[in-house]
Design brief:
Elements lengths: L7 H20 L5 H15 L8 H25 L5 H21 L5 H23 L5 H7 L5 H5 L32 H6 L17 H17 L3 H12 L4 H29 L1 H4 L7 H22 L4 H26 L5
InterPro entries: TM_pro_TauE-like, TSUP/Inactive_protease-like
Membrane topology: Multi-pass membrane protein
Pfam family, one: TauE
């Protein structure tokens, strides 16, 4: 139907699945590819009549495509709730965008099973790292209760010293309109002039600079985003929260914007490669954007729902569920690839 080869009931299922997955990934501020890539390879062909069997790179390309819609929606929601620092995001994107575009081209020279094993292994690694951080303190919930002005990941760091003005989201859409800047009450003349929130070193955001570890993390994130469509959001959020002491809600919105623009760059590189150099991919125009439109329709609503839930769940709950999703999906992908050869077809 509609030139997709999928019957009407299947199109409805596409929208519902898109909404469900987009709500989940936006609630936990993870890349949509974390769930969409394995879903496009293993779940959608089983549940949706007429859904095509995809190569791994086609699944990654389709995941990048639907991320464009879901994160356009969620980033708008984070912006409206004043949870994005555009100055910091711009500095990170100057590195991540070209790296992701190059890596997306390079992904077609990597064996599909290697991509999937790297994808699953990375998720398991992220789950283990987050678990270790989460279990660092004897009672995270008690620590946050005692220090409500700090983010959860700041409490996890025993040597934490406040280097940033804590940013709490108390915005009420009925009271104040959205603005191009974030922040609360200004603490200095420079802040009063710009209205921006303070991040990192406690100075004006215009003075925010990237150190070598920040650059390396961003390069790694951009590379992984281009290869398998994941990690730039998680790595950016961890860097901002742990290294630069940015509260979790602010780092979530900022990392979502970095993720969004980075995957747009990777998607455009993928489209250009498929359109103008099909001989490199050996696949031609295999990304089924027709069915992707229906999945993306669900993502538009799921992005709003996910941002709404993220703003209302406790940081401890988000962290625990994020760890569980990463671990389960990572193990599933690794086992499926090792024993059944990766893609469904």
């Amino acid at each position: 139907m509609f030139g997709t080869g999928v019957p009407a009931v299947g199109l409805v299922v596409l929208v519902v699945l898109g909404f469900t997955i987009a709500t989940t990934v936006n609630t936990f501020a993870m890349e949509a590819a974390v769930l969409f890539v394995p879903a496009f390879l293993f779940v959608f062909p089983a549940l949706v009549p007429g859904f095509p069997d995809l190569a791994v790179n086609a699944a990654v390309g389709l995941a990048l495509f639907v991320e464009l819609f879901g994160y356009s929606s969620s980033v708008a929601a984070y912006w409206y709730r004043h949870q994005i620092d555009f100055n910091v995001a711009a500095r990170l994107l100057a590195i991540a965008v070209p790296v992701a575009a190059i890596a997306r081209v390079g992904s077609y020279f990597v064996p599909s099973n290697a991509l999937m094993l790297g994808f699953g292994g990375l998720l398991v690694t992220l789950a283990v790292v987050l678990y270790e951080a989460h279990e660092h303190g004897p009672s995270l919930v008690d620590a946050v209760a005692e220090k409500p002005e700090l983010s959860v990941l700041a409490v996890l760091d025993a040597d934490y010293e406040p280097q940033t003005r804590v940013f709490s989201d108390t915005h009420d859409a009925a009271e104040t309109p959205p603005s191009d800047h974030m922040g609360g009450a200004a603490d200095s003349p420079s802040q009063r002039g710009s209205g921006d929130a303070v991040v990192g070193d406690g100075g004006d955001p215009a003075d925010f600079h990237l150190e070598l570890p920040d650059v390396l993390v961003t390069v790694l994130g951009g590379t992984l985003a281009g290869l398998v469509g994941i990690a730039i959001g998680e790595l950016t959020q961890a860097m901002l929260t742990l290294r630069r002491r940015v509260p979790l809600k602010l780092s979530t919105g900022t990392s979502a914007l970095v993720l969004h623009v980075t995957i747009v760059a990777a998607l455009l590189a993928n489209l250009a490669l498929l359109r103008f150099v099909p001989s490199i991919t050996g696949e031609g125009f295999t990304v089924p954007f027709g069915v992707g439109i229906f999945v993306a329709t669900g993502c538009l609503f799921g992005g709003q729902a996910g941002a709404y839930l993220n703003n209302r769940l406790s940081e401890s709950t988000v962290m625990r569920m994020l760890i569980g999703v990463y671990f389960l999906v990572g193990v599933f992908v690794v086992v499926r690839t090792l024993f059944l050869g990766g893609a469904a077809h």
